[in-house]
Structure formats: C-alpha cells, structure tokens
Amino acid sequence: MTDSDEFAARTMPYRRELLAHCYRMLGSVDDAEDLVQETMLRAWRAYGDFEGRASMRTWLYRIATNACLNALEHSSRRVLPAGLSGPTADPRQHVRFAPEIPWLQPMPDVLIAPEVSDPAAIVAARDDMRLALIAAWQYLPPRQRAVLILRDVLHWKAAEVADLIGTSVAAVNSMLQRAHAALDELGPDKPVAEPDDPEIRALLDRYAAAFEAADMDTLITLLRSDAVWEMPPMAEWFRGDSTIVELIAAKCPYAPGEARMVAIAANGQPGFAFYLRGHAQSLHVLTATPDGISHVVSYHDAALFEAFGLPTSLVETARREPVLP
C-alpha cells in the first residue's frame, strides 16, 4: 500500500463528520466542503510528521477547526431573514431579493448522516444540526463557537480545547459559559417531534398534498397560528397562518396539478423540494410539531437542488426517460 493509499484509507472514515463539523462552524455547505478539502490537503502535507501522539480523528479535527477559524476571520456570519428584522405585516407588498447577504444554507442529511444504527446517536446527530440551532451559533464569536461545538457536540475535554485554540482551561470554561448565556437569550427552537413519528409523517404527507392540490384551505389548517415563513434570499419574513397562506396565494399563484413535492431531509428535519410547472422553485425545510407546522424556511435557490441530488427540471428528466410498452 502506498502512502497515499494508506492516508486515504485512514482519513476517509472521517470525511462525513468533518463536513458536519465545518458546516456547524460556517453555516454553508459550499464553504464546509471547501474546508474539508483544505483539511485533507493540510493533513496530507503533514502526514509524514504524524506520529500518532493523538488519534487520527482528533488530529483531523484540530486541522479542520483551525482552518474554519482562519476562514471566519475573512467572512460574515450566515443568517436567516428573521435574524435581520421583524416580520413583514403585509404579505402582498414587494419582497426584496438580496443575494448579496450571506444566507445560512441547508445541509442535506444524506451528506452527513452518521453511519450507525444506534437510535440515540441518530437522534443526537439530528438535534445538533437543526437549522435554528446552526443559525443561533452563527451569532457567537468564532472562538466561542468552536469551544461550544467542541465541548457540547464533540465532547472534548476542556484541556484538549484549550490546547487546540491556544488558551487556558479557565478561558475555555469562560467562553463556554458566555456561549451558553448567549444561546439562552437567542432561544433557538428546540426539537419537539421526530420526523419518523407516524403522526408527524401524516402531517407532512398532508402538507405536500395541500401544495400539490393548491389547496390553501387545507394548508392553513396544517400551519400553527404562530407559524413562521422565511424565504432566503428574500430578506422579508412572515408570521401567522393566514398571513403565510395569503403570501403564497399572492406571490406564487398556480393551479392544482402544476406543483410537485419531493421529500427531502435537511439538518435533521423533514422537508420538500417544490417543483412548479416542472421546474425547481424552492426547498422547504420544516419544523413539524404535534399541533402543526411551526416554521418553514423556503429556499428560493435552484442551485441548492444539486446538493440534494435533485434535478432542477423535471421536464427534461421526463424527456430522457424511456417510453415503456
């Protein structure tokens, strides 16, 4: 086995979790993938000096975390619309397309799902990737963010974190305390239901069916009265079931049969790819509760469909399919 073969065999098992780690730090799938590539390049260059004083996993996380901290020195935090302003009252008013804002991106579960069968590990991985939680972490200073993730998600010891970021154990504990206090003020949504729960699955099926049938009367019954609707890269966001349904009717009118919903999973949450008249329209990442849909982040960016392994046009896909007898 060559050195390159040995390196690939030893590092490949960690790529998925490193991608998740970089995404938690950066809030961007694109940036996270770039940083994992950079991590592997740095690791390969230093592989000849790797003497096994730490585990391969720990060594790679050290490289990845430092690469993320370096990247964050030159970038703005990723946000969702609700992090910029209050809700918009009139769903019929003009909404502002703002591609210049660094929006928080959704992470496809298929890219980072742990390759384990332990239900507890799967649930923990989902909870640590929730879109609202990732959005809240972006408010923390980069070093605080790294400390929080390394201590609370990866369960590193305070001394290990202190060694990685070049500070004292007391400073690490202080940063973790401040990060917890900041998150308490931000109050990100907490998980209230598992997407595999039969009642939640039925709710999601009804949500998809309502969109495909353009049935706004049913849709309003599936949304909680205080539901939130965000639409990056549009800067405005909306609150309230009736406001959301009026928004859809005003900004995206269509007839029954013109829409198709394809199930996806992002950030440990259920969702749907919404195709309108055969073309990619938006990706919905949902927060589903026993009493209805409480939050929808509807990403209006066809480029994101590729990350989920989805075509941007069902029309062209259908044309390429063979005609069966």
Describe the protein's architecture and organization:
With 325 residues, the protein is of the alpha+beta class. Helices cover 49% and strands 14% of the residues. The chain has 15 helices and six strands. It has a six-stranded mixed beta sheet with strand order 2-1-6-5-4-3. The C terminus is likely disordered.
How does the SSE layout of this entry go?
Layout: H1 3-11, H2 15-26, H3 29-46, H4 56-72, H5 109-112, H6 119-127, H7 131-137, H8 142-153, H9 158-165, H10 169-186, H11 198-212, H12 216-222, E1 223-230, E2 237-239, H13 241-251, E3 259-266, E4 269-276, E5 279-289, E6 292-299, H14 304-307, H15 314-320
Parallel strand pairs: 1-6
Antiparallel strand pairs: 1-2, 3-4, 4-5, 5-6
Helix pairs in contact: 2-3, 2-4, 3-4, 8-10, 9-10, 11-12, 12-13
